[in-house]
């Protein structure tokens, strides 16, 4: 039975009272040390920080920013902001100074918690001078108005705040594959609806373990880690860095794990770097040995204890899901958006249908518009975009449905399949419309392609821009270029044979760049920014399309 209209703060306070000594947050420290906070310790530190925030006498509902990579005190700071009666505004930890200033100014944040960051000097100029800065325990070098220890010197608040469920809890600024970020407003009731229904659906509990590594400022990590831990009592382990990620996974041995497609692909490429794909495929086909090999591979990745593996935030190639299934790990697709707390659809265990996401989550209504757009409505739907009623009206229908911008269809069992983004669908020079995502999923089966972006607006035929995996790049450097080209030609022929004539690709172009967050090709949640891809390579598109060589190199 799901109890609605309770805040995450009330859930935390109840859970803290039930097991104050239970381990809650496990934080790796520089030098190989690990710090653990119990539920009681996290609560006490949050209360002391809340007392300090209250001492500032800001109006109720003032905005307080969190600028940090994932760490234990990110969550403690969020709790403190809510306990003090304010609204949290998380920022991505790798924004430019201009982007920091944009969000801070738009949100009117008056205080900023500064935590674990890789390049604070490049971000710091974006912090408005009137904003009070507070350094969390893990923080970069720099000058800050206050340290976390200053806040801990305050006497803790003694009341147990009960915010109005309908009141604003947070403003989440979207990472945005195009355009400027939007401030998505969520209430405590939104969080409660999504978290309580999701926990009831999966039956996770206090013995489960999570690894936090995707940005906590993103709705997926906020729900799958912060809210899940508060509502189900799970222990949260934090990753220290990309370099230590596999070691962090092995230390946590998560029982529930959420990853975006790029992460699941990176795991796969890491396995292929240790063992050739063909050899692994041969071993997995052997009945008894295959199971043993699969378990060994999962253990090496730190995934051997996972009960629920989830994948979302972007289209997932069915071949990738099938690969994990053959290892012995059933990866379930989920679908959602920042605008509905990431709570919309999820595939149920044992009911997977290749190429389809799954059914709507409990309490979610779904309809497909005349244009084929997926529209959803639930108690997790946002209040609107902050200070942007016009864009809010464009996104929310008069009867409260969220326009997702995704094209899709439902089968007889109400499974959902996405067929492309309305804004990503392009028209070729012949006037035919093409949805890139399904084609990209077909091409992603190749063991040496790590990223793929299909383009073709105004071209005689679409192109597939490909980024090779590290293994693929090494093989080319070692003289295996012709073998790679041959396999890619075969792939292109197979994929084109499955497509309608107007969808067929003129060429696969192997670009020389490796697309990453740092060079601006990926969002912080590892989605490809199509506008950046198109602006970077667009000057060559016509040349590549008209040349019509099956495989071309961007050199």
Automatic annotation (TrEMBL):
GO terms for cellular component: membrane. Residues 15-386 form the AMP-dependent synthetase/ligase domain. InterPro entries: AMP-binding_CS, AMP-dep_synth/lig_dom, ANL_N_sf. Signal peptide: none annotated. Keywords: Fatty acid metabolism, Ligase, Lipid metabolism. It holds the Pfam family AMP-binding_C_3. GO terms for molecular function: long-chain fatty acid-CoA ligase activity. This is Long-chain acyl-CoA synthetase (AMP-forming). It comes from Pseudomonas panipatensis.
């Amino acid at each position: 039975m799901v109890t609605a209209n309770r805040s995450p703060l009330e859930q935390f306070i109840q859970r803290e009272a039930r097991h104050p000594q239970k381990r809650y947050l496990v934080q790796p420290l520089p030098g190989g040390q690990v710090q653990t906070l119990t539920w009681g310790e996290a609560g006490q530190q949050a209360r002391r920080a809340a007392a300090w925030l209250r001492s500032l006498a800001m109006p109720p509902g003032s905005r307080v920013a969190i600028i940090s990579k994932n760490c234990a005190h990110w969550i403690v700071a969020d709790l403190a902001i809510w306990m003090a009666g304010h609204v949290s505004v998380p920022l991505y930890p790798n924004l430019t100074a201009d982007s920091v200033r944009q969000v801070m100014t738009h949100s009117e944040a008056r205080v900023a918690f500064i935590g674990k960051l890789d390049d604070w000097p490049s971000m710091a100029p974006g912090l408005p001078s009137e904003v009070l800065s507070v350094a969390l325990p893990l923080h970069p070098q720099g000058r800050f108005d206050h340290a976390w220890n200053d806040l801990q010197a305050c006497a803790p608040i003694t009341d147990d705040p009960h915010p109005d469920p309908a009141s604003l809890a947070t403003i989440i600024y979207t990472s945005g594959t195009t355009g400027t970020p939007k401030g998505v407003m969520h209430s405590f009731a939104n969080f409660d609806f999504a978290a309580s229904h999701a926990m009831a659906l999966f039956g996770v509990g206090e013995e489960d373990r999570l690894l936090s590594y995707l940005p906590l400022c993103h709705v997926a990590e906020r729900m799958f880690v912060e809210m899940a831990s508060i509502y189900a009592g799970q222990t949260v382990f934090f990753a220290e860095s990309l370099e230590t990620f596999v070691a962090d996974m092995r230390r946590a041995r998560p029982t529930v794990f959420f990853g975006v497609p790029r992460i699941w692909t990176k795991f796969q490429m890491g396995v292929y770097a240790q063992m050739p794909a063909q050899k692994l495929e041969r071993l997995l086909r052997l009945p008894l040995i295959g199971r043993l090999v699969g378990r060994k591979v999962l253990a090496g990745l730190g995934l051997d204890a996972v009960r629920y593996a989830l994948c979302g935030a972007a289209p997932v190639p069915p071949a990738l899901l099938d690969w994990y299934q053959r290892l012995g790990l059933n990866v379930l697709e989920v679908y959602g958006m920042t605008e509905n707390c990431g709570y919309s659809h999820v595939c149920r265990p044992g009911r997977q249908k290749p190429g389809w996401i799954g059914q709507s989550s409990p309490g979610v209504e779904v309809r497909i518009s005349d244009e084929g757009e997926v529209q959803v409505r639930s108690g997790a739907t946002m209040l609107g975009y902050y200070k942007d009623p016009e864009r809010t009206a464009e996104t929310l229908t008069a009867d409260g449905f969220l326009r997702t911008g995704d094209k899709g269809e439902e089968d007889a069992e109400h499974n959902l399949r996405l067929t492309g983004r309305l804004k990503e669908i392009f028209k070729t020079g012949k006037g035919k419309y093409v949805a890139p995502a399904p084609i990209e999923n077909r091409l992603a089966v190749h063991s040496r392609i790590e990223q793929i972006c299909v383009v073709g607006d105004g071209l005689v035929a679409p192109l597939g821009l490909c980024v090779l995996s590290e293994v693929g790049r090494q093989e080319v450097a070692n003289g295996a270029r012709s073998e790679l080209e041959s396999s890619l030609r075969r792939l292109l022929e197979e994929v084109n044979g499955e497509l309608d004539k107007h969808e067929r690709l003129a060429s696969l172009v192997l670009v020389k760049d490796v697309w990453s967050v740092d060079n601006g090709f990926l969002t912080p949640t590892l989605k490809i920014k199509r506008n950046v891809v198109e602006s970077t390579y667009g000057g060559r598109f016509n040349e590549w399309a008209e040349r019509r060589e099956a495989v071309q190199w961007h050199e």
